[in-house]
């Protein structure tokens, strides 16, 4: 049991380290993906961005979320309240937020990934003022 847990932690650490060293693309995810028939219903009416077009740090955060790894920031995985009302209204606890590292920032910065219990993924680079639906 201990060796399995240690193995899982090592894999998570490897994913985290490889994601952090994958590059320092500081470009904004400003280009919206064209409307596609394959866009999920929850993305209807929202700006979208393909996962591949997100900054490298956001893609790294998505890999950590997918792996269920320990996260670098204490608030990662906590409930996102959607107080700004930019995402579809859902019950409290439906959304969770994760920090996207911003090179040069000493704190958490403004970039986040927010996930919904229904599999939705959103990206913001302006601290919740606007969101793009992430097409994965």
Automatic annotation (TrEMBL):
Keyword Phosphoprotein (UniProt): no
Coiled-coil residue spans: none
Signal peptide (residue range): 1-22
SUPFAM superfamilies recorded: Microbial ribonucleases (SSF53933)
A single GO molecular function term of this UniProt record: RNA endonuclease activity
Presence of the UniProt keyword NAD in the record: no
Stated name of the protein: Ribonuclease N
């Amino acid at each position: 049991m201990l060796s399995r847990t240690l193995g899982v932690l090592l894999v998570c650490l490897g994913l985290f380290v490889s994601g952090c060293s994958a590059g320092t693309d500081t470009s904004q995810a400003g280009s919206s993906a064209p409307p596609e028939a394959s866009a999920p219903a929850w993305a209807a009416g929202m700006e979208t961005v393909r996962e591949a077009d997100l900054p490298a740090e956001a893609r790294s955060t998505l890999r950590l979320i997918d792996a269920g790894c320990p996260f670098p920031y204490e608030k990662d995985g906590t409930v996102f309240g959607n107080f700004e009302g930019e995402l579809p209204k859902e019950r409290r606890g439906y959304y969770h937020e994760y920090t996207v590292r911003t090179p040069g920032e000493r704190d958490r910065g403004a970039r986040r990934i927010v996930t919904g219990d229904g599999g939705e993924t959103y990206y913001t680079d302006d601290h919740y003022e606007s969101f793009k639906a992430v097409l994965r």
